[in-house]
Amino acid sequence: MEAGPVDSGPTDGDWAAAEALLRGLSSDARVLLICHVNPDGDALGSMLGFGLGLRRLGVRRLQATFPGPPEVPEPFRGLPGLDLLVPAAEAYPAPDLVICFDAASESRLGDLVDRLERAGAALVLDHHASNTRFGGVNLVDPRAAATSVVAEQLLTRLGVPLDAGIAECLYVALTTDTGSFRFEATTPAVHEMAARLLATGIRPGDISRRVFDTRPFGAVRLFGEALGRARLEPAAAGGRGLVWTWAGLDDLARHGQRPYVLEALIDSVRCTAEADVSCVVKQTAPDEWAVSLRSKGAVDVSRVAVALGGGGHRFAAGFTGHGTVDEIVDRIRAHLDGAVIGSVTG
């Protein structure tokens, strides 16, 4: 049975259970790491960084994967640990242990949910307040800025020292989910973790250029087109304002781009001064769209995403929508007023 949203971080018992699970692995145990569909920097970075840590613990039969096409977004193709990745179809069919990263619910695992059902045990590392606690052991901390924070804490408890490979993965994860330390989740503890990672000798300038500041010219043209069709609705969200745009498969094809380039489009939309809520609707199939939602603080967009089958945080959330763009935006509007902070929802 799925539990409700998590209100606090892991208990001492949760940490102890996770440690026992990992320390009790046999030498031939098959361990499968899974992150969510359309993986972002936190999902991939946390998974690969933790996988490299498990290698240091002596785990030999180890795979990492994610649902959907086995394509790593260009900004993350330099990450250490990519050799752990296998296509979803080649992942262990019945692993002894599944570890899930950055997934708030089983639905975010796509077709790989069957591996979760067949696994001998399941451990979930996450930081989404909307997490349903679908694992046997759950390390879910909604106060954490990124899933990589939880991953680093568990590696520390397991006695795994940071090296440059682990640190680069966790640093990419941390910087992507904090918007290069610009978002509200950036705390003193976040900067302290970044300092520990940088102390291994990784080069933050090189990483930032690769992850944030490099984009094909075709993507620049595509962004211009998508921003040109952006709509501002000042009365939406109880008068806090909504700005939204969309991009379809035809747009990607016309500019010769892969879907991953659209992940950064939300950052160009969310800066709109007149709107608290920003939204980008990205086509993934003829009748399917990946929807990204952001808030500056007046609206809890995770309420909207959860109501529409997704999840996330107060400031950043998403879901998979079906139908036309206008139908999807209509559904979002219908939930925005009830998601204004302080409003009462059913």
Structural class: alpha/beta
Strand content: 15-25%
Radius of gyration: 19 Å
The largest beta-sheet arranges its strands as 6-7-8-9-11-10
Q: Count of DSSP E strands? A: 11
Mean pLDDT: 94
From the N-terminal CA to the C-terminal CA, the straight-line distance is: 21 Å
Morphology call? globular
Pick out the low-confidence regions: 1-6
Q: H/E element string?
A: HEHEEHEEHHHHHEEHHEEHEEH
* Fraction of residues in H or I helices: 25-40%
Question: What does this entry look like structurally?
Answer:
This protein is an alpha/beta fold. The protein is built from 12 helices and 11 strands. The strands form 2 sheets. The chain has a 6-stranded mixed β-sheet with strand order 6-7-8-9-11-10, sandwiched between helices. A 5-stranded parallel β-sheet has the order 2-1-3-4-5. Strand 1, helix 2 and strand 2 form a beta-alpha-beta unit. Helix 2 packs parallel to helix 4. The radius of gyration is 19 Å and the shape is globular.
Descriptive key words:
globular; 6-stranded mixed sheet; 35% helix; 18% strand; alpha/beta; disordered N terminus; 346 residues; 12 helices
Write the layout of secondary structure elements.
Blueprint: H1 12-23, E1 30-35, H2 41-56, E2 61-65, E3 97-101, H3 113-118, E4 121-126, E5 137-140, H4 147-157, H5 164-177, H6 188-198, H7 204-211, H8 217-228, E6 231-233, E7 242-247, H9 249-255, H10 265-269, E8 277-285, E9 288-295, H11 301-307, E10 311-312, E11 316-322, H12 325-336
Parallel strand pairs: 1-2, 1-3, 3-4, 4-5, 7-8
Antiparallel strand pairs: 6-7, 8-9, 9-11, 10-11
Helix pairs in contact: 2-4, 2-5, 4-5, 5-6, 5-7
